[in-house]
Amino acid sequence: MSKELKLNIDKNKKYVVACSFGPDSMALLSLSLKNNLKIVVAHVNYHKRNVSNFEQASLTQFCNENNIEIEVLDTANLEVSGNFQEWARETRYNFFKNVVEKHGAEGVLVAHQEDDLIETYLMQKNRKNIVKYWGICEENEILSVKVIRPLLGYTKQELLEYDIANKIPYSIDESNLTDHYSRNKVRHSVVEKLTKEERQNIISEIKNKQKHSEKFVP
Fold first, then answer.
1. Local structure of 193: helix, strand or coil
2. 163 with 30: CB under 8 angstroms?
3. 8-state DSSP, 206
4. Is 128 exposed, middle or buried (0-12, 13-18, 19+ CB in 10 A)?
5. Neighbouring residues of 101: CB distance < 8 A, sequence distance ≥ 6
6. Is the dihedral of CA 127, 23, 17, 31 positive or negative?
7. What is the pTM of this model?
8. Quick one: pLDDT band at residue 125, thresholds 50, 70, 90?
9. Is the dihedral of CA 49, 54, 58, 59 positive or negative?
């Protein structure tokens, strides 16, 4: 039996739900529907993987079946400049900003979860950099758009179990299964091997440090 998940979101406002068709964002989208939120879905197709068009089509079908408006950014004809990850992030949030403004939304909901929080914190510690905010904050602004992360209290496994229990469709990004990126190395070699007690100790450590932090933009 999957854990009961809840969203602590103001139902009187409209939101843009950032959705890649991965298990985390599909759980967020499903929960937004269950909570009767007024939403618009925003999806970016980077055409970086052979399943990109399948994911776009599948998400569009899900939205159509559930009477959800969807906005899609197809980057096929956009010129990539500099580091792809940085370019993709800037492109993505500019798109979110446009969708938020177009639909008069309160902000954008993104599906960062507890594993992302721990990974970000451990990477910050490993780099030994001075950071403004430890981990990931529940709410901040990016490009003057409110970004809300309502799933930070749930693990990736809990979201996956929710999808399976509720028969929510999703696609796994195979690049996340490799160790080509430093975040993936932290995920596979450290975070996925943590015991429940070790997780809670790290979460407590993060919360203590956050008390003395400013808001960090992940």
1. helix
2. yes
3. H
4. exposed
5. none
6. negative
7. 0.89
8. confident
9. positive
